[in-house]
């Protein structure tokens, strides 16, 4: 398994570290300060230029890129190579007399490191993911091009004593980076169409012509290519904590279909054993090397990944670890931890290969824990061996093993309903609830998201609540990372579907932190918070809590910001709050009439309906607000809504029109009394 995000961040070259950096000298045993020789300027220039040149060399030595981004990678590598003469001249003394040159070279070095990291991520990454998320990855190339153009524009190469050819070449490279920034790479329309067609035909036989085009454009043409792609896609899942992309199901489906297509186009060679007379006695397909365990050399039934990224059969590597070994059998590298991560994608590929070749797919072992499969599942529905291994690490592992185990459960629970049942029956929910209090933020994120995914299965909701989860989820909502807070809000919404849980969640103090997330969260976080608040406020006591926490002013702010994307949610919550007396007073005091009349004029049918409902609640007992509504020209739009709106909208609009008529009658009577 790849290193965690936290570990990656600590070693990232973007933070200014590199593999060649020297540790600080150990002076603890010296009796006097060491004598230090001061290098001259030329040696400093040469040293920094040499570091930059080394990165250029690394980039130049990268293998030719494959997949949908190969042209972008090739262009970037070509431009970077053209900087070699500049760095060579500086290393040869072409920077004498320019005191700011070191800082400029440092900036060039940092930009080159960014370029190298982007190129490596594309080379090593999933080609299928790159095809689906092309726009997001293109932004990374744009960022690199902008950074390179900026450092070159600030580099004093024209003032350096170098040949005109070098000056012209650097100027050309800068111009190329400048053009690359403004150039929009046209999408491959046919590839986009083919990807969509594969998903639309998900349960049907996909046209082989389409699969062939995709296979060629992504350069996934052989079984070896498919192995690398499956590992890359799995690494993406693991590195993101099990939740990398909302299109993971599409990507996995495409991977399966491409693999079947590749096997069909390039059938696996068969070996035969013959009798002494030469007649064929038996034919069987050759097991691909990537499907064999490196220890037993047998077809893997339960492939797992160790910390070095190598995959083994679970039982074989577990025996190796149980014998006290701390190294990877294949690479001899030290294992940073002993957690075993299921390689679900490779397992799926093995099963498909078995089916294609008439071999019975490997069967998971029955559960070994006290928990037995319930009526909704059977022992063959779940990977009990894998779940039991995860449970062991979750219950008694180190902090890192618990983090990894929670991440695996998060991914398993997201995959299908059977997993949600099996994980609960294995006794994972109380252990996950306990981990909600972990000081490790990433563990918190995995844990609360695993509980969110488990709560989708109705019977698990009661187990989660009975395990004491609600107060701890509220605490995560208050103090966790943004991702943890967002998923905590979504979990509370899922649990609040049960009416009695609405009361418990409100009493646990969830409303104020939900309002904080509503105001400060990401767009997705705001939506999660709004949904949870709306559902909780079906209970009258929570309406009062929300009003006292000051939610109305924030909701009115959303109504005043049409670009914020929260008008739908604000209107829905205001409509339910206004049905309560305290909420009605708070909404009335917020001067909502101008916003609500504007929504009735220009909003969606549902928003017009909610706006009319809120207006009726606040205007029915306040003729001043009714007059304001009339003055803003609400009469015509109410007539239109009374004729063409939903049943609820028609009722509310009709009541408001009657209110305006009463207002007109009252005004007429007042004027008559004045004349008299």
Automatic annotation (TrEMBL):
<dbReference type="InterPro" id="IPR036537">
    <property type="entry name" value="Adaptor_Cbl_N_dom_sf"/>
</dbReference>
<dbReference type="InterPro" id="IPR003613">
    <property type="entry name" value="Ubox_domain"/>
</dbReference>
<keyword id="KW-0808">Transferase</keyword>
<dbReference type="InterPro" id="IPR057623">
    <property type="entry name" value="PUB12-19-like_N"/>
</dbReference>
<dbReference type="InterPro" id="IPR011989">
    <property type="entry name" value="ARM-like"/>
</dbReference>
<dbReference type="InterPro" id="IPR045210">
    <property type="entry name" value="RING-Ubox_PUB"/>
</dbReference>
<keyword id="KW-0833">Ubl conjugation pathway</keyword>
<dbReference type="InterPro" id="IPR058678">
    <property type="entry name" value="ARM_PUB"/>
</dbReference>
<dbReference type="InterPro" id="IPR013083">
    <property type="entry name" value="Znf_RING/FYVE/PHD"/>
</dbReference>
<feature type="domain" description="U-box">
    <location>
        <begin position="286"/>
        <end position="360"/>
    </location>
</feature>
<feature type="compositionally biased region" description="Low complexity">
    <location>
        <begin position="17"/>
        <end position="34"/>
    </location>
</feature>
<keyword id="KW-0677">Repeat</keyword>
<feature type="repeat" description="ARM">
    <location>
        <begin position="468"/>
        <end position="510"/>
    </location>
</feature>
<dbReference type="Pfam" id="PF04564">
    <property type="entry name" value="U-box"/>
</dbReference>
<protein>
    <recommendedName>
        <fullName>RING-type E3 ubiquitin transferase</fullName>
        <ecNumber>2.3.2.27</ecNumber>
    </recommendedName>
</protein>
<feature type="repeat" description="ARM">
    <location>
        <begin position="427"/>
        <end position="469"/>
    </location>
</feature>
<feature type="region of interest" description="Disordered">
    <location>
        <begin position="1"/>
        <end position="38"/>
    </location>
</feature>
<dbReference type="InterPro" id="IPR000225">
    <property type="entry name" value="Armadillo"/>
</dbReference>
<dbReference type="GO" id="GO:0016567">
    <property type="term" value="P:protein ubiquitination"/>
</dbReference>
<dbReference type="GO" id="GO:0061630">
    <property type="term" value="F:ubiquitin protein ligase activity"/>
</dbReference>
<dbReference type="InterPro" id="IPR059179">
    <property type="entry name" value="MLKL-like_MCAfunc"/>
</dbReference>
<dbReference type="GO" id="GO:0007166">
    <property type="term" value="P:cell surface receptor signaling pathway"/>
</dbReference>
<dbReference type="InterPro" id="IPR016024">
    <property type="entry name" value="ARM-type_fold"/>
</dbReference>
<comment type="pathway">
    <text>Protein modification; protein ubiquitination.</text>
</comment>
<feature type="compositionally biased region" description="Polar residues">
    <location>
        <begin position="376"/>
        <end position="385"/>
    </location>
</feature>
<dbReference type="Pfam" id="PF25598">
    <property type="entry name" value="ARM_PUB"/>
</dbReference>
<feature type="region of interest" description="Disordered">
    <location>
        <begin position="356"/>
        <end position="385"/>
    </location>
</feature>
<dbReference type="Pfam" id="PF25368">
    <property type="entry name" value="PUB10_N"/>
</dbReference>
